[in-house]
Amino acid sequence: MLRNPENFATSVMQKTGRWPLPPAVRGSDRGVSKRRLGMKRLRGRLNLFQATMLDWRERHPYNAVHAVRIDGPLAIDTLRDAVDDTLTRAGLTGLELDRQHARYEWHGGPSHADIERIACGDDWQVTLAAAFERHLNQPFPGDGRIDPFRFFAIDVGNAFFLGVAYDHFVAGGDSIIVLLNAIADRHAGRGTIDAALALYPPTHRRLLLRHPIRFARGFRRFPAMAASCRRTIRPRYRSLEDGHNAFMFFVLEAPYFRALRDTAKRWGVTLNDTLLALLLLAQDAQMPQRDRTKRRSELAVASIMNLRDAHGLDVRQTFGQFLSSFRLSHPVPPGITLSQLAQDVHHATARIKGEHLYLTTLSAIAIDRLVGRFQDREQRLGVYARSYPVGAGISSLNVNALWRPAGAATPLYIRGVPTGPASPLVIAVTTSGETLCAGVSYRTTALTADTVARIRDDMIHRIQGLT
């Protein structure tokens, strides 16, 4: 037993910049806080989904990657100045993470970004996809003082792609779009962020307190959620330890994107509903021998949703991450049309949104984190595949609604998001201008490149059939 664990912990903090409590404190004195030991408590508190992302990235990197096409020649020094000035003005420097207590603080100070310059090669699409895949799998530091951003640039002649990989717990995709928009403006000499952003938004606890009745009603959905999970085919992983994400992307040009968007409107469903239906049909096409008489015969998809509006926070003033998700399953019977399936999906998503059932998802995540304290590593790795099976997911963002100046031509914008433990395949759908870009991330331990290419081609073929 250490005679003075407080002095020991303070010494470790001073030498390493981290706060690992000594064994004695981890045991009987687990409740000792930084404040009691004379250390400053970090200003911000992570919300539930952010803390869960940190759990996930203990096993595998959990990064996201964005890239925007900027017209004009690449001048790396000018671009670096634009990045540094924007990050400094926004206050997005000097991040410190206290992983143990789920707290963080942006200390500020000047930015000194290192922008990786990547040779384009013969095909910019191949080069860009390779850069995305590498950054999706390259970890960020786990705790303490960290830089959560990595920038890169690819010169394509009369334009260049500015890319950023970021530790996903720090921000949702909407905040990153606004950040890249500000950097592009600064690079073009159109000004930049005028003042530091709000960096410490409220956690999701605020939503639970504002909607206690809906939260309580959400518990009544647990049996139905569990029943749906028991009916769903589980994804198969050769190795749960292998979290490598491969990446490919495709671009829907204007005629096909307009056909998809207009068809969804004609059916009275959202674009995201139609994409989820397309993904269900594409999964079904890869399982021609699926035995529908078995208990586990349904297919499941998930969708990321942004709760920023529920918090009432302006995306251009508040930087952060407000994500949750929902899941739905469907038997996808033989002969069902895309229209019928999209209507079924819309019925489910409308109920989820109307009844605030995303609170049920957050509650399930909280319960899972609590149970996880009593599980070993192997049990934790397989919990989602076993208890919350999802075949594929969608993450949708509309750049047109976020890019400024409003009404100006929106540049080509591509995203890649991590799969994590919840799904072996995630498609990041991004609408910019009159195009739709879909970044496809998939776990190589569960899916082959050929299988994912067939899913991609099935979706594209059905969309082309709408014209």
Give the helix/strand layout.
Elements: H1 5-16, H2 23-26, E1 44-45, H3 48-57, E2 63-71, H4 76-90, E3 95-98, E4 103-106, E5 115-118, H5 124-137, E6 144-146, E7 149-155, E8 159-167, H6 173-187, H7 205-210, H8 212-218, H9 222-231, E9 245-252, H10 254-267, H11 271-285, E10 299-306, H12 308-311, E11 323-330, H13 338-354, H14 358-372, H15 377-387, E12 392-398, E13 413-416, E14 425-432, E15 435-443, H16 449-464
Parallel strand pairs: 5-7, 10-12, 12-14
Antiparallel strand pairs: 1-4, 2-8, 2-13, 3-4, 3-6, 7-8, 9-15, 10-11, 14-15
Helix pairs in contact: 4-6, 11-13, 11-16
Biggest beta sheet summary = 6 strands, mixed
Report strand order across the widest sheet.
9-15-14-12-10-11
Number of E-state strands: 15
Class inferred from helices and paired strands = alpha+beta
Unreliable runs, pLDDT <50, ≥5 residues? 1-33
User: Which range does the strand content fall in?
Assistant: 15-25%
N- to C-terminal distance = 74 Å
- Shape call: globular
Helix content: 25-40%
The number of distinct helices, counting runs of at least 4 residues, comes to: 16
Tell me the radius of gyration.
Answer: 23 Å
Mean pLDDT: 88
